[in-house]
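re: ur question from earlier - yeah i can do the single chain one, its not a big deal. heres the input i used so u can compare w yours
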Amino acid sequence: MLRRSFTAVLEKNSTFTSDFATEPYEAGWALEARWFVRILEISPGAGLTMTAQISPDGLFWCDEESGPFCLNEVGLASMPLRNFGQWLRLDARLSGKNPHVKVLIYLAVKG
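and the output i got, formated as tokens:
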């Protein structure tokens, strides 16, 4: 059987100055997923905390059990997921005084 895979670009060169969440992505067909977050710019002293969230319907959300990952410098980070159900998104919290972050966010899924 041929496995399927797909990479969705959910944020492309997007700039944020407050908390945000990515658009929901339906991935019930997938067996595994991996978030990739690339920080292009971040203000000094700022931090970005990302938490994967799951949902049965794309409307109501809870945090996925793997816990958050934190970024505070330019670079690339990833988070793998398995057994996640139907819908995925990332919840992002910015910290620091006058935070500013410019990001690329990808979701790679395969079944």
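The chain has one domain: 5-110. not sure if urs matches, ping me
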